[in-house]
Amino acid sequence: MLHSSVCCCFWRTIAVIIVAIISQDEVVSAHKLSHLTSTFIPSSSTPSLLRHRHQGSCKNNSCSGSFSGRIKLVDTATHVLCSSSSPISSSSQLTSPSPWSPGKWKLTLDFGVDEPKPDSSSLEQNENRIQLHKLLGDNWGAEGGRLILPFEVIISSETSSTDKNGRGQANPSVEMTWLGGKPTGSIQCIPKETNDDENDDEQIHHATYINNKGEQRVQISPGLWRNEPPTPILPSFTKILSGQASSLRMYLKLVNSIERNTISFPEDQLLLLKSNTFRTTQYASGIQTVLPYQYAKEQSQQALEEQLNHETGDRRLDGSDLLETAAAYKDIAALVMERDERRRRWKEVEGVLPKISGPSIKIGRASTTEELLNDVKRWGIWPGDTELMTVERGVVLAAVSAKEKKQSIFPWMQDSNSEEMVVVGKWSATPLFDERSDGNT
Q1: Among 34, 95, 280, 288, which has the minimal tally of Cβ within 10 Å of its Cβ?
Q2: CA dist., res. 336 & res. 342, Å (int)
Q3: Do both 290 and 271 map to the same domain?
Q4: What is the DSSP letter of 268?
Q5: Taking Cα atoms as reference points, which of 120, 26, 49, 117 lies closest to residue 341?
Q6: Could you tell me which residues come within 8 angstroms of residue 188 by beta carbon, excluding any fewer than 6 positions away?
Q7: Which of 360, 382, 407 is the last residue of a domain?
Q8: What is the pLDDT of residues 130-160, one digit of tens each?
Q9: More confident residue, 418 or 286
């Protein structure tokens, strides 16, 4: 009995090691991918993951290596959406009185270096760290240092006043290049109330933070913003996905220097912000688009874990029969490739569709999605449409003067703009309403 148990654990350990090795191999042949890129299969039966369970035999072609005989993913997310009492739609009663009405928001800038996530691109993060240390110093953001800067702003469709007075010493070409076109509107920071008797310009500030010297006041100059419509995700998609996000870009400038622990910026620091945005109808469509991808990713991982389970998994992995064990390894390899392909397809679209936190089956319920659409902390007035808008968590970049100018073979082709951009943190936006009556603004 002890010998049998030891053999079982040994063979299953070998299977797990093989899974880890295959997971690192991102090169899959076109022949193998033809079995992995099948579209979601609608069905009128109860949504489930149909999987053939092996009990130590290879009957009915279960060990033949044909992927379709081992696992089939059913689009449960589609069933959840279609089986609801009513289709998911934007039911929020909050609307803007005019497409050009200004909106009031609270922006929170979170400066610091984030720890790498297991499912994120380590190469991209390493490149940003190298650039960060090169431009801001090796100690910037070290030891988990962070600086949180919250302040309130008015988002308007006017650009003339900011275009004239809000540039300061920043390089206009950097700002306009960042916006990627003509500005759509402006951002005016709201001064914070002060109890000081004097009301001179030095007392006017828009944000505060605390460091080892006590409370510090920060002045922030106005900026411009542009909300770009979605574009196709080439080369995988030639058309825009239903509910695909718009891209918000804007800039602000810190008038005075700030410093807290290992986070610091000099005077007149230009900050560049970007994020995905959704109007209510756009968001509802995006949820329906992303759910099948999210669900397939989750279920493919679950199928692999079930096959490797010591108690309820594939019995052929016990190692009692070498031929069946080899066939089991082959099936496990196919499941790993299936999981990686589903994850790759989800990764292609997750950056431009609504972020889903928690199990997709829960978000798929109409009532849960309606709660998201009616969340007053999420939706606010933003010029450009009468529908409310939500701004997802985005990234903050700093425009930093490069220590070395880019050289060119020809003198007249020298790069006169020595500013480089580097990610220095995250930012979020929360809508604010001054007046509210019966859910209407």
Answers
A1: 34
A2: 10
A3: no
A4: T
A5: 26
A6: 153, 154, 156, 162, 222
A7: 360
A8: 888 788 888 898 888 899 999 999 999 998 7
A9: 286
